[in-house]
Amino acid sequence: MSGEFILRLIGMFVGGLIGWEVGNYLAVAAAAEPPYLRYVLAISLAGAGLGLVLTPYFTTRPFSWLRAKIRQVPAHHLVAGIIGLIVGLIIAALLALPLSLLPGKFGEVLPFVAAVISSLLCMSIMILREKDIFGAIGMRLSRESVTVKDNKVLVDTSVIIDGRIADLVQTGFICGTLIVPRFVLGELQRIADSPDVLRRNRGRRGLDVLNTLQKESRVPVDISDMDVEEVHEVDSKLIKLARLLKCPIMTNDYNLNRVAELQGVQVLNINELANAVKAIVLPGETITVQIIQEGKDAGQGVGYLEDGTMVVVEDGRRHMDSKLPVVVTRVLQTVAGRMIFAQPEGHNVR
Question: What is the pLDDT of residues 205-241, one digit of tens each?
Fold first, then answer.
C-alpha cells in the first residue's frame, strides 16, 4: 500500500467530517425541517470525494516538486542559502522588539514584514556573493580546491562504455568533478542486463570502468541524484541538467554532441580529442607500419599506427604480416578520423 493511497484515505475521512459539519451548519442556518439527514449525508459524501481526489495536490505532489527542484540546486548554493536564512532571522529577531513598540497596527505587522524581507535579502546576498563572503571569512581552502569544486563535467553513457576516460583522467588533463547522474547509471545497468550479448558485454565493461574511476581516479567522481523529472530521454536530461549547472557534457555520441551545441551547451568529445592529438605526418615522410590486412583495392595492404590511424599502403598486400618502411603520399581527414596513404619505400612517389 503506497503512501499516497494512505494519504488519500486520510483526506477522504477528513473531507467527510468537514462535509458533515458544513451540512449540519447549513441545515441549522437555513432552519431546515427534519428529516434533513440526507442533505447532510450528501454534503459529507461530496467532501469525502473531494478529499480523496485533491489530497495529493496538497501533500505528495508539492513535496515531489520541491524535492526535484532541490536536487537540481548545487550543494554550495543550498549551504549559502541556509546560512543567509539564519542570518536574516537573527537580524529580524533584533528588529522585532523596537518595531513591536510602534503604535497601532504598525507594531503588529512590521516585525513579520521585517522577518520576511531580511530573510530573503540575506539569502539572496549569500547565494550571489558566496565565493567572496566565504573567502573573506577564511572558508576557502586553496585555489586548487576551489577549482576542483567549481568545475563540473557531466559524463554520458557512451564515454563510460568507451573506457578511455579512465586513462584520460590519470593524465591530469581533466580537473574538476566528474558527475554521473543516477539516470545515466540506470541506462548503463539496462544495457548490462540486455539480452543481446554484445550490448550486455558493453554495459558490463562500462560498469567496470565506472568502478575503476571511483577507486583510482585522480579527480572526484560523484554519482549524483540530480534529475530532470519532466524530461524522459537520457540525452535530453543531460542537456537540461548541463544548462542548469552551467557545465559541459563529456560524450562520444554524435547526435548528442550536435544537439547540445545547438542549445549552447559545451561538449567535450573524446573522439575529437583523440583525433586532435594524433601524430601529424606530411607527404614525403617515412614511417614504419605493419601490414595486417588487405585493402579494398587490388594490391593494397592496410596497417595501423600506435594511435589507431589507418595507413593504406599501395602494393602492400605482398608484405602481409610484416613491417616495412613506407613513404607518405597523402593524408586524408574524414569524419571517422585520419587516413594515411603511402607506398613502400623505394617506389616512385606519385
Answer: 989 988 888 888 888 888 888 877 778 888 888 998 8
- Of the candidate CATH numbers 3.40.50.150, 3.40.50.720, 3.30.9.30, 3.40.50.1010, the domain formed by 146-275 belongs to 3.40.50.1010
Q: How far is CA 122 from CA 23, 99, 168, 258, in A?
A: 48, 19, 42, 41
Tell me the pLDDT tens digit for each residue of 256-272: 888 988 888 888 888 88
The C-alpha cell 599506427 sits at: 305
Place of cell 568533478: 177
CATH 2.40.50.140 fits 286-344, yes or no: yes
CA gyration radius, the chain: 33
> Rounded to whole angstroms, how far apart are CA atoms 14 and 11?
5
In the chain, the amino acid numbered 263 is: Q
Decide: 320 and 299 in contact? Cβ < 8 Å.
Answer: no
